[in-house]
Design goal:
The chain is α+β, with helices and mostly antiparallel strands. The protein contains 8 helices and 15 strands.
């Protein structure tokens, strides 16, 4: 399993300053979630991405990324699923079409979505993770839907197709906003073993920034708000407008 952290700020600052309270606890989690890290930060006309298969707490490169100046970014530390190689191609975030995506959780089988992913997008897959398939499905849905609806629809497709899943939690960074989606399967082996809090996403709104992240940062997250299950949190760049989109109605979700 993995951990997620995202931020949108009113003005660009180094990530290490924007997330001064969160990053130490987040990096400490890489002692368990130690199978690589990735950071996407908005820069110019597309997200700039840095990734490494080394654990974040041991990585000199991660220390350098803290100095990246941006107004919007997402961070991911990885705990690889069994049998998934530790390669750059399997390391989040995944990118394409001026966006970046990171997932915390798993579903199986990995190819459950292949029939639903447009052939031109499936041909661009470079790794062998379920998470990359999640992103490719989402990119296909974004051709016809706005991001909040596309995220909810992607999760619905996985729920219907997968034989098992633990969590569909994810972050999506676009040129307009950062989006977070929250959903876990309480009956999964991971949820039973780690408890109901493990996959919950929380967020905090202040005057100068909005932050969203996985559990495991107790000091930083003392006053954060839980993102309800199957809701999409939308944080707009520029004005920090925040919307929590409720689950799609059954008719829309099935269409």
């Amino acid at each position: 399993m993995c951990r997620l952290l995202g931020v949108v700020a009113r003005r660009p600052e180094p990530l290490g300053e924007l997330l001064a309270e969160e990053i130490p606890e987040f990096v400490a989690l890489s002692r368990e979630h130690g199978d690589g890290w990735g950071v996407a930060s908005w820069s110019g006309t597309a997200p700039a991405v840095a990734r490494d298969v080394e654990a974040a707490h041991r990585s000199a490169r991660f220390g350098m990324v803290r100095r990246t100046t941006t107004d919007a970014g997402l961070l991911h530390i990885r705990m690889a699923s069994a049998g998934s190689p530790l390669t750059a191609q399997n390391t989040h975030p995944f990118t394409g079409r001026r966006m970046a995506f990171a997932h915390n959780g798993f579903f199986s089988p990995r190819d459950a979505l292949d029939e639903l992913i447009p052939a031109d997008l499936l041909a661009t897959a470079t790794g062998d993770t379920d998470s990359e398939r999640y992103f490719l499905l989402l990119r296909g849905l974004l051709r016809e839907h706005e991001p909040a609806a596309a995220l909810a629809l992607a999760a619905e497709r996985i729920r219907l197709r997968a034989t098992a899943f633990a969590s569909l939690n994810c972050l999506l960074l676009t040129d307009d906003a950062l989006y977070a989606y929250s959903e876990q399967n309480p009956d999964s082996e991971v949820a039973r073993r780690r408890g109901p809090e493990f996959f919950r996403l929380h967020y905090q709104i202040t005057e100068d920034r909005v932050v969203v992240g996985s559990s495991g940062m107790p000091r930083a997250q003392r006053s954060w708000t839980e993102l309800p299950e199957r809701h999409v949190l939308e944080i707009r760049r520029g004005d920090l407008r925040v919307s929590a989109h409720p689950p799609l109605p059954p008719v829309a979700a099935a269409s």
